[in-house]
Prior knowledge:
single chain, 2 helices, mainly alpha, 132 residues
Amino acid sequence: MSSCHCTDPNGHLIVPQASIIARKKEAKAEELQAAKEEMSNIERQMLQKANQARELDGAEVLKGDEFKRYVNKLRSKNTLYKKKRLEIAEITAEFGILQRTEELLKQRHETIQQQLVMPHSVFLRQFHFEKV
Length: 132
């Protein structure tokens, strides 16, 4: 048996298939190398942008779990802020009501004071007329 006339169980020659597979493997290796180079370029760009961001505001760019923790922290702060803002609105409304109540009570007090002074002055006038 010679090595160049090998056949598979279907009777096809194996040598041409091996060269086709070798060419496909070589093409995939080139694609892989190109993808690795592209990934390397993108990683380099990402590092440059992270450095630029750090230079601009001094903070590091958050990734993955750090970013998730940061987002959760912001959400909890936002919820707390909304609760406090609601409390302030309620207190402001109550303050307005209390101001109006105080105003009404002052008016009532003045009215009662005037009513108390009037009968007293009427009594004094009557007393004065009776003496004369």
